[in-house]
Amino acid sequence: MTIPLIDFSAADDPSCSADLSGDVHRAFVDDGFLMLKNTRMDPNLVSSVFAASRSFFTGPMTTKRACQYLSAQENFGYQGLGQENLDPSAPADLKETFTMRNILNVPIAEERWPSAEFKALMSAFYADALRVAQQLQSVLCNALELPGDYFSNCHTGENISLRLLYYPAIDAQRAAEMQATDGQMGAGAHTDYGLLTLLFQDNVGGLQVLGANQTWQNVDPVPQGIVVNSGDLLERWTNDRYCSTLHRVVPISGAHDRLSIAMFIDPDSNTEVSALNSCISIDKPATHAPITAGEHIQQKLEASHKNRFS
Q1: Which CATH number does 5-304 carry?
Q2: Which of 11, 26, 100, 122 lies at a CB distance of 3.0 to 4.6 Å from 135, suitable for a disulfide?
Q3: Any idea where the domains of the chain sit in the sequence?
Q4: Strand partners, 261
């Protein structure tokens, strides 16, 4: 699938704001997905995070256990294979993860990090990815006829999470050892929960999006490109104008494991999400009842863990 490729180099240029907002608007209406290029994220920083991620996931289990995920409410730490079901109706996902929620504002005990260097690196990446997200929030405000700080005011970091993902290559022998089942996904079909997600892929591939024709289509990696998709709460804010599109990661085969990095831009828990004035009319009244962001996000997190955590 070729999703719209949008040049983000003019994100700070007011004279280009209308064109950029129009491009983002069309992409979210048509696909719910887009690809950003020229975001000014440091490629060396991105490479360093991928390297640290590979080192962690292929490293000793003792280190992973020291960083283990304790609760969906905290949403921090390591989870192993089969510990999450992004599609609650399907078998557990064939992936490992390390999730870091609100790490610039909420201290996490040092012993729950793999190392001080790992913490510093992830904090730097979180801050840089957040910069891109905040620019994109401003673009969305322009597209939706909102004050420029509308989204930034309700995304202070409480539910903004950075997540490292590792999908090991599964051959027949490994599948048997893991008792993998037919049709088991790297990440089950799901929509994301909040406003939007920034996704950084390596060159292995595996991400698929459910297209308008109801067929699964590959989203191929683009060097230094950032995949962006709209989430459930943005869909609700826009009264279904922007679609929160189903996507998944297929099981990884062959010689190479897959790594990706996701930055989930989710609103603060007390944020009430209801249809925006610019997205309702006599012909299109509000479709969804108001809901708080925290209520929606927590429901989704708990469902994806099948009551493993509270």
Answers
A1: 2.60.120.330
A2: 11
A3: 5-304
A4: 164, 200
Which neighbouring-strand residues pair with 247?
A: 190, 209
3-state secondary structure of 260: strand
The contacts of residue 243 (CB under 8 Å, 6+ apart) are: 28, 29, 31, 32, 230, 235
Residue type, 56: F
Rg from Cα positions in the chain: 19
Structure tokens at 149: 């700080």
User: Where do we find the tokens 């793999």?
Assistant: 114
Residue 187's H or E segment, with its range, is strand 187-190
Burial group, residue 4, by CB count within 10 angstroms (0-12, 13-18, 19+): middle
The C-alpha angle with vertex 83 and arms to 79 and 89, in degrees rounded to 5, equals: 145
Residue 45's SS3 state is helix
pTM for the model stands at 0.94
CA dist list (Å): 246 to 201, 208, 259, 291: 18, 9, 20, 21
The dihedral through the CA atoms of 104, 246, 87, 257 has a sign that is: negative
CA distances from 74 to 107, 108, 309, 310 (A): 12, 10, 10, 10
Structure-block tokens of residue 143: 């597209």
